[in-house]
Amino acid sequence: MRTHLAIALAVLLVSAPAFALTSTYGWEDGGTTLGQYGDITATNVGDQVHTGDRSLYLLDQDVGGTPQAFVAWVIGLTDGDEVTACFWRYDTTPGASPSCRIWGSYTSVGGTIDDYAGSAGGNSDYGPGTGWDEVCHTWTFDSDTGARDGLVIQVRTYSNPGDFVWIDDLTVTAPDGTEIRLPSVTPVDVTTWSAIKGLYGSR
Ligand SMILES: [Ca+2]
Ligand SMILES: [Ca+2]
């Protein structure tokens, strides 16, 4: 009996999934991005959505390169942490631009979202270009011997000034104990007592 219990416990410990945080964002509150690199315009719009009433419209205006829209930032990461991000994207040009990809970059310890600390790679798939499709990528965090603790999730648009795509329904999963920042313009923590009092008008 004791052996069986020990085996059961061992199986439980090995098979128990690590706790993870999952955050979602669908641009419903009017947000856009957390930041950008290169010449790109990000606008919260309602003319093309995957779900809800709003989405993110990205207009590529970069002449010489690939601009980036920062749609999430995960901080507090350590070596081996896995981060998965997915979003829905929309274009109707199969095999040609406009298109976009999901990509990642590192940020330095204690830095801002603009403190670039190297590319983290991404998903090279430009999508079918037949309307909405969901693209995902999983990164295994590399701290570069403690120099980095953040991962920026980017939308990269291709390829020419005037190209545009829509983005909606972002999902980010990261290990418990890290922090996922999204472009939301409303307070994330509405469960604090002061927020509840504010919501219900208590004195
Ligand atoms: Ca939406
Ligand atoms: Ca395309």
Tell me what the structure shows.
With 203 residues, the protein is mainly beta. It has a single domain (20-186), classed as Sandwich (Jelly Rolls). The chain has 2 helices and 12 strands, in the order αββββββββββββα. It has helices at 2-15, 193-200, and strands at 20-25, 35-37, 40-45, 55-60, 68-75, 82-91, 99-108, 116-122, 131-140, 148-158, 164-175, 179-181. The longest helix is centred in the first third of the chain and has 14 residues, at 2-15. The model has no long low-confidence stretch (mean pLDDT 90). Bound molecules: calcium ion (2 copies). Residues 26-28, 49, 51-52, 54-55, 168 line the site of one calcium ion. One calcium ion binds at residues 91, 93, 96-99, 129.
Gist of the model:
With 203 residues, the chain is mainly β.
Termini separation: 59 Å
Tally of domains = 1
Bound molecules: calcium ion
**Are there runs of 5+ residues with pLDDT below 50, and where?**
none
Q: What do we call the CATH topology?
A: Jelly Rolls
In CATH, what is the class? Mainly Beta
Percent strand equals over 45%
Report the order of strands and helices.
Answer: HEEEEEEEEEEEEH
Q: Percentage of helical residues?
A: 10-25%
The coarse overall form would be: globular
The CATH architecture name reads: Sandwich
**Largest sheet report:** 6 strands, antiparallel
Mean pLDDT across residues: 90
Number of helices: 2
Indicate the structural class.
mainly beta
CATH superfamily membership? Galactose-binding domain-like
Radius of gyration: 20 Å
Number of strands: 12
